[in-house]
Amino acid sequence: MPHAPHDPVNQDAHRHDAESRHAHAHAQPPNRSAHGHGHEHGHSHGHGHSHTSGVTDQKRIGIAFVLIAAFMVVELIGGLLSGSLALLADAGHMVSDAAALAFSWIAIHYGKRPATLQLSYGYKRLEVLAAFVNGCALFVIAAWIVFEAIRRFYQPVPVVGMPMLVVAFAGLLANIAAFAVLHGGNRDNLNMRGAWLHVLGDMLGSVAAIVAACVILATGWTPIDPILSIFVAVIILKSAWGIVKSSAHILLEGAPAELSSEDIKRDLEANVPEVRNAHHIHAWSITGERHMVTLHVYPAAGVSTRQAVVAVQQRLATRFAVDHVTVQVEDEGCPDGPGPEGRC
């Protein structure tokens, strides 16, 4: 993977920071590998994921897209011929799934591009954006299913059980194949998780259609069709809420659940002898798997800037699994005033 060009402005910033006794673990594009530098500024970039997994996830999503898109047409025709809302709801869900999988594939593809001077963290956030859009799409689909189901309670539509059963069973096989392909992917990746949940919703829709077809064939009771459709819609809404909530939290620069600034402060001050005080601690995520931390520290007496930076980086890497850290070392009062903890 090509590296972003080295900016000479950053070299000047390095010299300036060394003179002012501020040390930083500078941000780096997500697609660079771990490396070290032999100067006063400590760097920590050993990311906890590999690019091979991204390629694998992209292939998995591509295969799932082909399976879903191919059967989507079959289920749509089957739903129209049989008059089954469960099948039409599942076909509509498949349409959104095909679009969601395509969006996810594109996000992973562009996410592998190198960082630029304008986008210093690269394009990885596209995967989070794709997950957010896919989650919102699930809300729209579920709302349409519920609306159509309620309408059918008041205006029943004849449902032909056997074609509905055949198409629903074939749809279940297609969804199982797509689900199996995606299930082996990276479940920590929100984009991958969104695609996986889309297909899982399709599987449930197919199962609901099969159950409804069996009931209609056995008893002729057609209200089972919209009832089970609403059941599927509720499950879809639950999945959608989790994806939208998680992706929105990342897009709003929210702190990861496992990275509390108070926990980081207490841990550094209790377990890193080189640090007398830690403050102005900020934690956020580039993606669901890649977290970032910035903080200010006062070094202990006799501890050099470099020793303090390296000690903080090592502790955050081993204790909190954060490998991209920016550390500002201070000698006197904090120039930025009190941090989020209420004090310097």
Automatic annotation (TrEMBL):
Q: Where in the cell is it found?
A: Membrane
GO-annotated molecular function: zinc ion transmembrane transporter activity
Cation efflux protein cytoplasmic domain: from which residue to which, for each copy? 258-331
Record membrane topology: Multi-pass membrane protein
UniProt entry keywords in alphabetical sequence = Ion transport, Membrane, Transmembrane, Transmembrane helix, Transport, Zinc, Zinc transport
Q: Read off the Pfam families from this record.
A: Cation_efflux (PF01545), ZT_dimer (PF16916)
Task: Mark the transmembrane ranges.
Answer: 61-81, 87-108, 128-147, 159-182, 194-221, 227-244
Q: Which GO cellular component terms, listed alphabetically, does the Swiss-Prot or TrEMBL entry include?
A: plasma membrane
Q: Does the keyword Transcription apply?
A: no
The annotated regions of Basic and acidic residues compositional bias extend over: 12-22
Main subcellular location:
membrane
Protein family according to the UniProt entry: Belongs to the cation diffusion facilitator (CDF) transporter (TC 2.A.4) family. SLC30A subfamily.
Please report the name of this protein according to its UniProt entry.
Answer: Zinc transporter ZitB
